[in-house]
Write a sequence for this structure.
């Protein structure tokens, strides 16, 4: 059984490579812009600046074959199962990012902080609870 | 562009229909068991009972064509864009569930509380931060 994800938008960020990306948004990540595809315009209805959101992204540069990794990519920490880490290398490389929506203008959302790479596909947006 | 998700396990729950499911885990959801597929055994390495996890599921009973919904399925609340709701009906119907891992035995995880339906595919597990 397989399921298909379709991007609903893309990340535009000054972070261009995995080396430049903080491990978590709270570790000094910059703000970023999300451009939503026009066909999802109605799904933005009711979004308000200042609200906390969870962005779900697709880590398009990941290696999906990894089951165990060094946490934080640090070879001095023993390997562990990927389900007890936030490694982007995992069987289904979905990223979770809690951000604040600072501005919304037509199909563009400005959010902060976001550690995702420039060009990362966004697959869902939910209100944080 | 499309991306493919593969289940890494399945939910076993006393909740058999959407009518029976609380809207959120914190609204009286029961505990549930997750059976992980054998090929992902190594990815469980290092998981500890008592830890807080985020389960990502695939809402397999969802309608992906909805862009606006009545929040909480309540027709008395005006419709809103799905990205400002937690509706399971959305373009990429990924569920997010924060749970406590209460027991781990071989490939079976006991978690609580979980509002997902029996048979729901699980696509990822991450530590809560």
């Amino acid at each position: 059984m397989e399921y298909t994800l379709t991007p609903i938008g893309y990340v535009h960020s000054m972070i261009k490579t995995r080396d430049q990306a903080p491990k978590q948004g709270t570790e000094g990540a910059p703000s970023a812009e999300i451009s939503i595809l026009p066909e999802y315009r109605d799904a933005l209805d009711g979004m308000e600046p200042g609200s906390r959101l969870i962005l779900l992204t697709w880590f398009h540069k990941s290696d999906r074959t990894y089951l165990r990794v060094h946490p934080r990519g640090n070879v001095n920490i023993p390997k562990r199962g990927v389900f007890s880490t936030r490694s982007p290398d995992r069987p289904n490389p979905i990223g979770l990012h809690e951000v604040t929506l600072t501005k919304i203008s037509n199909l563009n959302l400005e959010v902060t902080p976001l550690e995702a790479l420039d060009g990362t596909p966004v697959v869902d947006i939910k209100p944080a609870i």
Q: What stands out?
A: The radius of gyration of chain A is 15 Å. Strands of chain A lie at 3-5, 9-12, 32-36, 52-58, 68-69, 80-81, 94-105, 108-112, 121-127.
